[in-house]
Write a structure and sequence with these properties.
Keywords: Membrane, Transmembrane, Transmembrane helix
Structural class: mainly alpha
InterPro entries: MFS_2, MFS_trans_sf
Distance between the termini: 18 Å
Pfam families: MFS_2
Protein name: MFS transporter
Number of strands: 0
């Protein structure tokens, strides 16, 4: 992404660049999903770490993200290189994340608290590598085009590959892990290589990406953070996205327990994930169309409602069985597809709006704050589920010493994976009503910033051709 002069006119993004950017999703989706899905279960059921302590271990490294992500965002805003401001940081993340991810699941001969310390330290290193990559990666779509609906179309490809990535992490990772220390070790190495390949591919694949962002990045970090906090669209988007991310984090952490203790088949984790991500592969064009018809806020409200509704319907699983549970998860998956696409498209809009209004390049600061909060909230989801299990009297174990769970633990497993994430998602839906950055408002801002050129008209009824 060469640092050429910014242009206020819409920029088309070629198919090659779309795919080159989207392939980075094999990093972001796998790293976001696998620890959330398996790390709590790995600690409680393989390393014999008490559930409450395991939940804390999952959350504490994310506190570091509040510092690391904002610093990386600021550094990428100020970076000047022949590769552009963002792409050098993709390489920096590729040096750190894959190795630390593999070490996280290396399965040292430790149990209990010592094992928790080891996992916590390696998770901290992995989170640092992820920050180096993810923060600038998320800032890039806002700087590739100035068109409101083009960003949604651009990110559609990313969402398709995210679905494939989630399928990999949700289906292949549990199959490889297999509930043993050796299996988890193999899984860590395999997916560490996947992370490395996708990070390098996105670096090379975005070499020809257009750059329409601002050239200036002024002021201190404190001043820029203050500017981000005063952006009303950004703060409401951050709030509603955090609620959605927290709900997904709780549900992901609970999926293996739901499969093992409610459906009665630990291998059902694989088929449940297939039901979750399957809709993402086929509903992206639908959500792009709905974003045009209802605007992005209306489509976001619809997707959040579907996610919450599917979660509440899961409460009837003990009476209606495994097939019913999979159908409910498909409803959740349709809503989840919309949430994933729309929140990142709206983030790109917020960054673009700030750039137009301020005349500065501050996308890294925005995505740094976003990613720090997102990662902390996702980890908090596993922590919350761990606390729900602990409150229900869940008994930790290792494969050589299985235990029989009390009935209260089964109730905790069910409530934690259904009602808790559904209520959190509904809170996010309520916050979505306060988000007000529409296509018309963004076009108006661009018209004021560049009065010599007509603002691009928001296209509500047409679909951009794929490039």
């Amino acid at each position: 992404m060469a640092p050429t002069a910014a242009t206020p006119s819409p920029s088309a993004v070629s198919l090659g660049v779309r795919l080159g950017y989207a392939v980075g999703s094999f990093c972001t989706a796998n790293f976001s999903t696998i620890p959330g899905l398996l790390l709590l279960f790995y600690m409680t059921n393989v390393l014999a770490v008490p559930a409450a302590l395991a939940g804390v271990v999952l959350f504490l490294p994310k506190a570091w993200d509040l510092v690391a992500n904002t610093l990386v965002g600021r550094w990428s805003d100020r970076t000047v290189s022949r590769w552009g401001p963002r792409r050098p940081w993709l390489l920096a993340g590729a040096v750190v994340l894959p190795v630390s991810f593999a070490l996280m699941f290396a399965g040292p001969p430790l149990t209990g608290a010592p094992a928790a310390v080891y996992v916590g330290l390696t998770f901290l290193a992995a989170a640092t590598g992820y920050a180096l990559y993810e923060v600038p990666y998320k800032a890039m779509p806002a700087e590739m085009t100035t068109d409101y609906h083009e960003r949604t179309s651009l990110l559609q490809w990313r969402m398709v590959l995210i679905a494939i990535s989630i399928a990999m992490s949700g289906i292949l990772a549990p199959m490889i892990a297999g509930g043993t220390a050796g299996g988890y070790r193999t899984m860590g190495v395999v997916f560490g290589l996947v992370l490395l390949a996708s990070m390098l591919a996105s670096f090379f694949g975005t070499a020809r990406a257009p750059f329409t962002g601002q050239q200036k990045s002024e002021g201190t970090l404190r001043e820029q953070l203050a500017a981000a906090r005063t952006s009303r669209p950004f703060m409401w988007l951050l709030g509603l996205s955090s609620a959605q991310t927290l709900a997904v984090g709780v549900m992901l952490a609970g999926s293996p327990y739901f499969a093992a203790y409610i459906i009665g088949d630990p291998k059902a984790t694989t088929t449940l994930f297939a039901a979750l991500v399957g809709p993402m592969l086929v509903t992206m064009p639908l959500w792009v169309w709905l974003a045009r018809r209802l605007d992005k806020r209306g489509a976001m409200i619809l997707s959040g409602t579907m996610f919450a509704g599917g979660g509440l319907l899961l409460l009837a699983t003990p009476a209606l069985g495994a097939l019913y549970a999979h159908l409910c998860v498909m409803v959740v998956g349709i809503g989840y597809a919309g949430l994933q696409l729309l929140q990142y498209s709206m983030l790109a809009d917020v960054i673009a709006h700030d750039g137009v209004v301020s005349g500065e390049r501050r996308g890294g600061v925005f995505t740094g704050l976003w990613t720090a909060v997102e990662n902390a909230v996702a980890a908090l989801g596993a922590t919350i589920y761990g606390w729900v299990l602990s409150a229900g009297g869940f008994l930790s174990s290792d494969p050589e010493h299985p235990v029989t769970q009390p009935e209260s633990a089964h109730v905790a497993v069910m409530i934690g994976v259904t009602a808790v994430p559904a209520l959190i998602t509904l809170a996010g839906v309520l916050m979505t009503f306060r988000y007000d950055l529409t296509a018309a408002r963004l076009a108006e801002a661009m018209a004021h910033a560049h009065p010599e050129q007509p603002a691009p008209l928001p296209r509500q009824d047409q679909t951009s051709p794929e490039r």
